[in-house]
Design brief:
It comes from Paracoccus litorisediminis. This protein is an alpha+beta fold. It is built from seven helices and four strands, in the order E-H-H-E-H-H-E-H-H-E-H. The longest helix has 11 residues. Bound molecules: 2'-deoxyguanosine-5'-diphosphate (DGI). The site of 2'-deoxyguanosine-5'-diphosphate has 10 residues, from helix 4.
Length: about 140
């Protein structure tokens, strides 16, 4: 399997509870390398643009307001099959359905406050990495 990069976000519920290190340990234990990382405060416009595909969903307003409620940590994870591997480490969107040992099972509070985002396809990964990081910030 090829080496890939994926975009990860440690969401406000997790940064607020000081869980960045514990979540990063889950990535590293799974063989994912954090090759870029920064803590930022999103604006409502930026959160809306990032989640534009969900614009028509009933939870869009709640989702974007949540994403600006505290700073987030955006990061690029690299590894063999990193996109799928990260989705496995994250667990199901709703923590009630997440497998034992996953980040969402261990840390998420609800389907909305679910601690992490991860790209769900190669196309999304390329788009989402470019949304947050310039080429100069991606040293590999
Ligand atoms: O890729 P995921 O983050 O696992 O899930 P997704 O792409 O289906 O949805 C993106 C985010 O939108 C998800 O992490 C949390 C939020 N969301 C999804 N479904 C619901 C939701 N938020 C609320 N409040 N209710 C939902 O049913």
């Amino acid at each position: 399997m090829a080496t890939e990069r994926t975009l990860s976000i440690i969401k406000p519920d997790a940064t607020k509870r000081n869980l960045t290190g514990k979540i990063n340990a889950k990535f590293e234990d799974a063989g994912l390398r954090i090759v870029a990382q920064k803590r930022i405060q999103l604006s409502l416009a930026q959160a809306g643009q990032f989640y534009a595909e969900h614009k028509e969903r009933p939870f869009y307003g709640e989702l974007t307001e949540f994403m600006i409620s505290e700073p987030v940590v955006v990061q690029v994870l690299e590894g063999e099959g990193a996109i799928l591997k990260n989705r496995e480490v994250m667990g199901a969107t709703n923590p009630a359905n997440a497998d034992e040992g996953t980040i969402r099972k261990e840390f998420a509070l609800s389907v909305g406050e679910n601690s992490v985002h991860g790209s769900d396809s190669p196309e999304a990964a390329a788009r989402e990495i470019a949304f947050f990081f310039s080429g100069l910030e991606l040293v590999g």
